[in-house]
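Bench log. Compound arrived from synthesis this morning; before running ITC I wanted a structural hypothesis for how carboxymethyl coenzyme *A sits in the protein. Inputs:
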Amino acid sequence: MTDTQKTAQLSLNGETYELPIFSPTAGPDVLDIRKLYAQAGVFTYDPGFTSTASCDSTITYIDGNEGVLLHRGYPIDQLAGKSHYLEVCYLLLYGELPTATQLEDFETRVTRHTMVHEQMHNFFRGFRRDAHPMATMVGVVGAMSAFYHDSTDIADPWQREVAAIRLIAKLPTIAAMAYKYSIGQPFVYPRNDLDYAANFLHMCFSVPAEDYNVDPILARAMDRIFTLHADHEQNASTSTVRLASSSGANPFACIAAGIACLWGPAHGGANQACLEMLKEIGSVENIPEYIERAKDKTDPFRLMGFGHRVYKNTDPRAKVLKQSADEVLELLGVEDNPLLQVAKELERTALNDPYFIEKKLFPNVDFYSGIILEAMGFPTSMFTPIFALSRTVGWISQWKEMIGDPQNKIGRPRQLYLGETSRNYVDIENR
Ligand code: CMC
């Protein structure tokens, strides 16, 4: 944050108040209203935080008008094309790309933490057999605070570091276990000779009864999906993690809160909802009917995987995923996948429709990811857990940044109260 000495004036009830302006390294200036209530006795009103910067951060930058997404300054398409997930994790956590030695050390540390406490198996078994894997993940990740007492003290930088590594390492194991449990198959232990993405495929798709060889191209596609979901600035689930953490809650509780928030269909749940929508549309002839429904204000239907609070031009992650969808389906020999045909035609129709043009609605990251995941063999219920495990590094990086920030205070928004003013209690016989 650069203090430019610039100020804005607010005139209110005959008084003028000076509001400092901060200039970021990129993006719009920010008005500092922290003293506004103390000085002028008014709150600001911004439901949905459409114009509010809730923190300062050096991790991720988005320019929604230009379709730009940078992690620590590096464009997402370069990271998706040239880097890999664990290297991006290092970048998000520590601020710089690692040297070869640093990367090897980081990968070793993550790999050594991939197993979960054996007693956690019993915890999984307490869930109903058909539980949604997201429901299981919210519970199990929260329960990590009961299993890893030596990494819950947020005042200790070493414990924060261990918690970060544990979460990045164990989330794929937990997501895979939630999946295995939901389909009645035995849990598969991690294999530390495999890389992060290949190990996740192994834990999801192998069974003790036969050999399973991870296809390196599928592992690469998996890694790319992880990379594209790694962080996304102050979105709903990240803000949830920050808000939960502002009270001093332990990291496992905070990440569980982030997972719960991500589950909603307007956020991470959109990938599942999008694929279900593509299946419901079924074939390209039905597209016009669904486009009309999406435009009809009396119909709650929305095009899932379309639109974004910040991107008003293009979602750079969707561009990379569209290309990945083609590659993965070709590899699997299903180029004529009917869902991909529906998705491409739906995208083409919407992008030429005045409603979507005027409202700047474009495919987002969730539009093509479900097609790839389904082609890889994942059921729709696993789409959001995969998003959650990928985003864990973003949540934990933002959490670490926040804990280390001396300005950190408990998040406590105010409100525009429109309820009754004080009135006297009425005894029940008189109501
Ligand atoms: N289909 C039809 N109309 C839409 C859509 C859509 N997918 N998205 C927005 N609109 C319309 C909306 O009805 C509104 O119209 P009007 O101005 O006439 O009231 C206008 O566009 C602006 O929409 P909004 O709801 O005010 O915008 P928002 O910034 O609050 O919401 C959003 C953003 C992502 C929640 C929304 O676009 C949406 O619900 N999309 C579908 C769900 C989805 O794909 N979510 C994934 C987002 S990316 C990954 C992630 O965040 O996890």
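What the model suggests: Strands lie at 2-12, 15-23, 30-31, 60-63, 68-71, 74-75. The radius of gyration is 23 Å.
ITC booked for Thursday regardless.
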